[in-house]
């Protein structure tokens, strides 16, 4: 294939700069800036989730680049409503001027409203502008057009930007599903028209580049789940990603066909159902839903439960069902649990632990490992990725949304298809494209992850200390000095997580206390008169002894009093 020369608009003033802030070199936390002249437009602003338990809910991208250019940010444009594309938006908006508009599909914006409300934003505090496919919108010197794509969430779009370097197509997350339950296919005709016009740069989803062929149609998943529910003689619990509204709609039809009532178990699935109902993407019969509080009194063969928590998130509905601690429902042997989901990389161990808990209960467990038809990915496989390149026929190509392995593999695929100007970039590597010049890495900007808990950002130092406490524990020194700076009472050292009590903890702590007394007596008068000086001397003395006797270097906290 020989891509045609670019015929997109170019005013010759400047090149286009692509600045990935998240999602390149990793899975999730997708966020990218496009910059030309005096204007910056952001595409998506997502979060990623922790793989360790340090008291972190999510991570969002570092916004140093955005903060440094906030007077030039003209808009944020969203491709769809998944958390790894919208979850970081409240944190971003806190750094931007109030008049920066947010464009996106109506369903994504309804979910954004919920996130903004959680962060204290009023109804009209942020300008949310719904977009429709094949219409054009302006943001500073950029114009952009949403293009319908199928994905594992309704109302997803790709974006075609008209820039100083020509047409830039960002696929967002996509697949080429020939039979989506809502009937909204990827708009291949419009993508081909843009290819005829001349696409200067294609930014394309790399997530499933290792998967050959084509992805499974969502409609076939509905058929597989209907067979399972129809055969079941007891309760059926479907664990799934709450955002998959098309699957929710199919399960509602399954419930009606099998004369079961539908129950939504988990806050996230209830939130997504409300959002989809508000924008007209989901309608349940008025008598279909049953409140979770009624589950215990319903016949086991007359209920179909949809539960969130497929990644074994702590305190999620599925985890509590597996542990037998859910306050509203206790499963019985023979009940059917279907995990209609994939395991996100990094979550393997907790998910398999949850599966083991279900199996020990005598649950009839069905997963993608035992019943391949119960889940379909929302991301394009290699054949579909190839088709996207062939439709757009880009002059240049940059793979997005994936680890470095995925990006390199997708870049190789683009070269195989005939694109000669291909560049792999990771977060922070600024890619520059002129109207006719080849792609080039022009600079590097500061990137990284910011941890959050309950809506608040956590400083890096807090996370480092939590990790160190987890590795080596914490020792606490209680010290009382008199007015001359001498020890007024024997120091006391206690520990948590450093050494087991049966391993001689008391002896170790007594040795640390003696070392503290000795260090104070040997310190000069200037040090003993300063709280900061005493604290540092005591901290180092206690830690040296503990490390010498245990091999661990705990965090040492000093509580100093003077009498």
Automatic annotation (TrEMBL):
<keyword id="KW-0269">Exonuclease</keyword>
<dbReference type="InterPro" id="IPR001279">
    <property type="entry name" value="Metallo-B-lactamas"/>
</dbReference>
<dbReference type="Pfam" id="PF17770">
    <property type="entry name" value="RNase_J_C"/>
</dbReference>
<dbReference type="Pfam" id="PF22505">
    <property type="entry name" value="RNase_J_b_CASP"/>
</dbReference>
<dbReference type="InterPro" id="IPR055132">
    <property type="entry name" value="RNase_J_b_CASP"/>
</dbReference>
<dbReference type="InterPro" id="IPR042173">
    <property type="entry name" value="RNase_J_2"/>
</dbReference>
<dbReference type="InterPro" id="IPR041636">
    <property type="entry name" value="RNase_J_C"/>
</dbReference>
<dbReference type="InterPro" id="IPR004613">
    <property type="entry name" value="RNase_J"/>
</dbReference>
<keyword id="KW-0963">Cytoplasm</keyword>
<dbReference type="Pfam" id="PF07521">
    <property type="entry name" value="RMMBL"/>
</dbReference>
<protein>
    <submittedName>
        <fullName>Ribonuclease J</fullName>
    </submittedName>
</protein>
<keyword id="KW-0862">Zinc</keyword>
<keyword id="KW-0540">Nuclease</keyword>
<feature type="domain" description="Metallo-beta-lactamase">
    <location>
        <begin position="28"/>
        <end position="223"/>
    </location>
</feature>
<dbReference type="InterPro" id="IPR011108">
    <property type="entry name" value="RMMBL"/>
</dbReference>
<keyword id="KW-0694">RNA-binding</keyword>
<dbReference type="InterPro" id="IPR036866">
    <property type="entry name" value="RibonucZ/Hydroxyglut_hydro"/>
</dbReference>
<keyword id="KW-0479">Metal-binding</keyword>
<dbReference type="Pfam" id="PF12706">
    <property type="entry name" value="Lactamase_B_2"/>
</dbReference>
<keyword id="KW-0378">Hydrolase</keyword>
